[in-house]
Each structure stands twice: as structure tokens, then as C-alpha cells.
Amino acid sequence: MHKQIPTGASRLARLRRATGLDFHVLVTLLSRSWNVIAGAATVIVLPLRLDSTQQGYYYTITSLLGLQILFELGLGQVIIQLVGHEVAHLDGADEAKFAGDPARLDRLSSLMRLLRRWYMVAALLFGLAAGVAGCVFLARRGDLPPAQWLGIWIIMVASTAVNLMYVPALAMLEGCGRIGQVARLRMMQSIIGYCGLWLGLILGAGLWSAVMVPLASAVSTSLWLRRAHVYDWLLQRVVEPTNRIAWRRDVLPFQARIAISAMSGYFLFYAFTPLIFANRGAVEAGRFGIAMTIFNALSAVGTSWVYAKTPTMAMHIARGERKELNEIFFAVFKRSMAFTVAAATGIVVCASLLSWTGVPQMARIASPGVLACLAFVCSCNCVVFSLAAYMRAHREEPMHGVSVTGAVATTLIAYFGSRGDILSMSAMYAALTAFVMLPWTILLFRRYQRRNH
């Protein structure tokens, strides 16, 4: 008998099985990997076209835009879980239109109407509150006159508010299992935005180039949703009053807990750069801001495997398929961890070699010691984020205690640490993650594991 030689197609299929790269994981991974590449390219281009002060304003402004978390209140994650549990019992959930139990279709329809109203109000409040607060904060330092950043800030806040308004439509799609389609949209808008940013920097637009990323996202999402007519039929559906989603009964119990975690997330990941800006100036804020941007992007890429399977995990739970839930989670978790640890280590090694060889651009980024601390935090957070996704797929939020404790401790570390040595501040941040947040999360996760055996 002749031994069959694997064809290119069979090798590709074998590789996809080994890496777990189905359409949704692959596109999510490509989208987030692009953001890492774009962030790295921006790290290179920014110091060439902006001075140290302008660079500090760039990263401080992007950190301040993270305030949208305080207005969204984690509802995006709530939507994915709620929708996932509903469509688990419907047919064709990953298509443009699906069918099944009329009561569940009514609940989805009423949920979409409810969310559209909520997010329109949230977007308006964010635009007003963040716009004013940001102006006051940026004006206090006075390194640049308002004429050089005020218009930029207004456009970026307005664009972010528009993006916030579109969260429910995209989250509904993700909850229905269309993770890959949404990731593809986000990758395209990111490509357009970053190419616009780089072109603006090259042509001498300076800090004004920063508006391209959120502006491109807002415009492209608006055009895509209008052209696709996403789930318009759900909005046109006549809903039986007895089947309507009640906010207090169906949404608030889950959202109240996850909102605390979401608000805490701002202080966990975005508080450092503004506080360094306030206490140490724009130059030092820019150096640390670059480092945080790199590892936040890496963290997003590393958790792509887990994130892409979140709706699937919710559907398994809704159907009581515990064995399938655990199998799929541990498969994607191992891949996420392997990638994150390897990539974080590689970044630190490369940065250390470049610093050792005396590359002048390395003076515009945090020291190798600070990068090592942030790489360790990134690796620990891969575990925390992954285990949290598993627990939240049960339509529960056990992480609020971990998040609040971490947020308070991180803010204190950032506030007092930013007045002194940045490396010591980073080491305390790493210790907090390793000795408090990580073991606490693992303890909570084990309770869910015992439940699902």
C-alpha cells in the first residue's frame, strides 16, 4: 500500500485544528494583531513627527477617552451573554435572520429597543461630561496652549460618543455568534484610521492626526450598519407585552455587578498615564503611555481565542452542555496563554537589546525594567481575563470584588508612584496583579469548575 502524502489542503486543515483557528478566532486574531502592528508602527512614527510634549498629549488624550467605560457600564458584555443565552434555543442564530420560539424572538426585539435608548443617552452624557472634564484636566498642565489641542479633543470626544452609540448593534451581533464579522469590520476601520494617522503625521498635520482613528471608526461603523440593515426586522417586530425584557428583572441584576467591574477597569488600565501627566509632565507620560499601549494591545490579541468563543460558551451553558463548555474553554485558554507569554517575553528581549545597542528612539519609551513589569502583568491578566470570561458566560459576575479592590489599589499606586520612581510604581503594580488579583480570580474560578463537573 502506498502511504498517502498529505496535500496542502490537508496540512492547512491540520494546522487549523492544532491552533484552533476557525473563521471567528482567525479574524479576531488578525484584527487584534493588526492593532499591535499598527501600535508598533505608531510608536516608531510618533517620535519622528511629534516632539516629546506632543507625544505626551497624544497618549494622555487617548487614555482620557477610556472614560467611555464609565458611561457604558459594562453593558456590552451583558448584551453578549443575554443574547447568547436566548439564541442558544433558536435556529440560524448566526445568519441575518433566525427563527424559533416567538417568546425568545420577542425578548430579543424588546432588548434591542431598550439598548438603543440606553446608549443614545449614554453617548450624549459621555460627550458632555468627558468633553468638559478633559478640557479642564488638559488645561491645568499648560504645556501646550489650548489652541493646539482643544479642537482635537472635541472631535475625538464626539467621534467616541458616536462609537459608543453603536455598541448595542455590534454586541447583539457578537452575542449571536457573529464574532468574526464584527472583528472584520473593526479591522477595516482600524486600518483606515491608522493609515490616516500615519499619513497625517507624514504630511505635517501634527497632533491633529490623532483624530483619524476614532473618526474613521465612527464613520465606517455608521455606513456598514446602514448598508447591512442589521436585524432591522427585529426592531419592526410586534412584541407581546408579556414577553418584553424588563430592565430591573432581566438586565439590572447582572449589569449592576458587571458595571462595577467595568468602571474599575478604567482605573486598572487607564489611570497611570493621566496621573503621570499630572505629576511628572507630558514627556514622562508619553514614555509610559507607549509601553501601556503596547501591552494593552498584546493583551487584546492574546485573549482573542477566548473572546471569540464567549458566545459559544454561553450557548453551551444555556443548553446545559457542561462537558462541551469545559473542553472548548481549556482548548482556547491554553493557546491564549502560550501566545501571550511568548509575545510579552519577546517584546522585553527586543527592547532590552535595542536599549543596550544605544538606539536613540528607545529614549522615548519606558525603560526595559518597566517593560518587564508590564509584560508580567500582561501575562497574569491573560489568565484573569480568560477565567473571567468563563465565569461571566454563566450570566453572572463574580469579579466585582476583585475589580474594585484592584482599581482602588492601582489608583493609589499610580497616584503616589507617579510622584516618584516609575520603575518602583510598575513593580508594585506587578506585585498587586500577581499576589492579589490573580490568586483571587483562580479561587473564584475553581468554584465554577466544581459546579460544572
From TrEMBL:
This is Polysaccharide biosynthesis protein. The keyword Transmembrane helix applies. It is a multi-pass membrane protein. The chain crosses the membrane at residues 21-45, 57-75, 118-139, 151-173, 258-277, 289-308, 328-357, 369-391, 422-445. Belongs to the polysaccharide synthase family. InterPro entries: Poly_Biosynth_Transport. The lineage of its organism: Bacteria, Pseudomonadati, Pseudomonadota, Betaproteobacteria, Burkholderiales. It is found in: Cell membrane. Keywords: Cell membrane, Membrane, Transmembrane, Transmembrane helix.
